[in-house]
Amino acid sequence: MNNELLNTIKKLSQSEGYKDVCHKQGKNDPMPSIDVLKEIVQLSRSILFPGYFGDAGVNNNTMLYHIGVNIDRLHLLLSQQIKAGMCFNSSSDESTACNEIDNKSKDIATAFVTQLPDIREKLHTDVIAAYNGDPAAKSFGEVIFCYPSIRAISNYRIAHALLQLDVPLIPRIITEMAHSETGIDIHPGATIGSYFTIDHGTGVVIGETAIIGTNVKMYQGVTLGAKSFPLDADGNPIKGISRHPRIGDNVIIYSNSTILGTIKVGDGAVIGGNLWIDTDVPAGAKLAQKKIDKSFGDK
Amino acid sequence: MNNELLNTIKKLSQSEGYKDVCHKQGKNDPMPSIDVLKEIVQLSRSILFPGYFGDAGVNNNTMLYHIGVNIDRLHLLLSQQIKAGMCFNSSSDESTACNEIDNKSKDIATAFVTQLPDIREKLHTDVIAAYNGDPAAKSFGEVIFCYPSIRAISNYRIAHALLQLDVPLIPRIITEMAHSETGIDIHPGATIGSYFTIDHGTGVVIGETAIIGTNVKMYQGVTLGAKSFPLDADGNPIKGISRHPRIGDNVIIYSNSTILGTIKVGDGAVIGGNLWIDTDVPAGAKLAQKKIDKSFGDK
Amino acid sequence: MNNELLNTIKKLSQSEGYKDVCHKQGKNDPMPSIDVLKEIVQLSRSILFPGYFGDAGVNNNTMLYHIGVNIDRLHLLLSQQIKAGMCFNSSSDESTACNEIDNKSKDIATAFVTQLPDIREKLHTDVIAAYNGDPAAKSFGEVIFCYPSIRAISNYRIAHALLQLDVPLIPRIITEMAHSETGIDIHPGATIGSYFTIDHGTGVVIGETAIIGTNVKMYQGVTLGAKSFPLDADGNPIKGISRHPRIGDNVIIYSNSTILGTIKVGDGAVIGGNLWIDTDVPAGAKLAQKKIDKSFGDK
Amino acid sequence: MNNELLNTIKKLSQSEGYKDVCHKQGKNDPMPSIDVLKEIVQLSRSILFPGYFGDAGVNNNTMLYHIGVNIDRLHLLLSQQIKAGMCFNSSSDESTACNEIDNKSKDIATAFVTQLPDIREKLHTDVIAAYNGDPAAKSFGEVIFCYPSIRAISNYRIAHALLQLDVPLIPRIITEMAHSETGIDIHPGATIGSYFTIDHGTGVVIGETAIIGTNVKMYQGVTLGAKSFPLDADGNPIKGISRHPRIGDNVIIYSNSTILGTIKVGDGAVIGGNLWIDTDVPAGAKLAQKKIDKSFGDK
Amino acid sequence: MNNELLNTIKKLSQSEGYKDVCHKQGKNDPMPSIDVLKEIVQLSRSILFPGYFGDAGVNNNTMLYHIGVNIDRLHLLLSQQIKAGMCFNSSSDESTACNEIDNKSKDIATAFVTQLPDIREKLHTDVIAAYNGDPAAKSFGEVIFCYPSIRAISNYRIAHALLQLDVPLIPRIITEMAHSETGIDIHPGATIGSYFTIDHGTGVVIGETAIIGTNVKMYQGVTLGAKSFPLDADGNPIKGISRHPRIGDNVIIYSNSTILGTIKVGDGAVIGGNLWIDTDVPAGAKLAQKKIDKSFGDK
Amino acid sequence: MNNELLNTIKKLSQSEGYKDVCHKQGKNDPMPSIDVLKEIVQLSRSILFPGYFGDAGVNNNTMLYHIGVNIDRLHLLLSQQIKAGMCFNSSSDESTACNEIDNKSKDIATAFVTQLPDIREKLHTDVIAAYNGDPAAKSFGEVIFCYPSIRAISNYRIAHALLQLDVPLIPRIITEMAHSETGIDIHPGATIGSYFTIDHGTGVVIGETAIIGTNVKMYQGVTLGAKSFPLDADGNPIKGISRHPRIGDNVIIYSNSTILGTIKVGDGAVIGGNLWIDTDVPAGAKLAQKKIDKSFGDK
Question: Does C66 touch chain E (CB under 8 A)?
Answer without folding.
Answer: yes
